[in-house]
Amino acid sequence: MTSNVGPTVRRRRLGQELRRLRQEKGMTAEEVAEELMVSQSKISRLENGRRSISQRDVRDLCRTYKVEDKALVDSLMQMAKESRQQGWWNAFGDVPYSVYIGFETDAASLRVYEPQVLPGLLQTPDYAEAVISGALPEAPQDQIAQRVQVRLRRQERITDPLAPLRLWAVVDEAAMRRVVGNSMIMSDQLDYLVRMSHEPHVTVQALPFDMGSHPGMSGQFTILEFSDESDTSVVYLEGVTSDLYLEKLSDVQSYSMMYEHLRAQALNADQSRQFITEMAQEHARRHQEEGAAPAD
């Protein structure tokens, strides 16, 4: 029941096992909460892996479910201990989307649709800083710098020589046209996007405006998949004050189908490189024109 995964996925596996034990016992989360004199929301958070699980929690739940298999209890207790270990992101302080980073760190592949900005895992430092500064206009500079560093640290999954993350990104034309920072930053960013698209484990598809309406018009989403079959896929929807993680099979299937339609409507990999290159050249020309324009 244990493997070389991070604390976020380990908490999720442990929560799934605790839910299975509760269901086998025929108890509702409300009944368990009442017996342990805790809130029902605590039981729900323990089972969905969004809350740290202590060994005491595991002990109390196993007693409630009358688990007699000592080896199973010991295994769950060990998982609880390991799930409380800190991930690399904890060194950066309070990171609001730490749950997502935990999933991303342990994922085998990501399928991303981005309608507004270029994918975070494929951003240059200058572009990342401009994006974060624009999204958080009242944030102090040290907070912006921290978030940039976290984003760059996340990108190490792409360049990991032993187990690189498989990344498939469909990017809307709007994200390529929007001038984030300045035209030179955009040109450099799009050139970098093209270079990264040549990596064997990275696929980038451009979705031009003239492709018309498509299933992704409701907004950005990411599908995370894991190498262990026991770890079901997760759909991540980013929010302003809170994020949403969808794990039901029907939800994952719906978003996977949406993604297949997006891939079908987008340009293929070679066409996308050409399209993105032309966009980069357009931004570079604009930068030259801006530099040549007479000062007021």
Automatic annotation (TrEMBL):
Pfam families: DUF5753, HTH_31. InterPro entries: Cro/C1-type_HTH, DUF5753. PROSITE patterns: HTH_CROC1. Residues 18-72 form the HTH cro/C1-type domain. This is Helix-turn-helix transcriptional regulator. It comes from Streptomyces niphimycinicus.
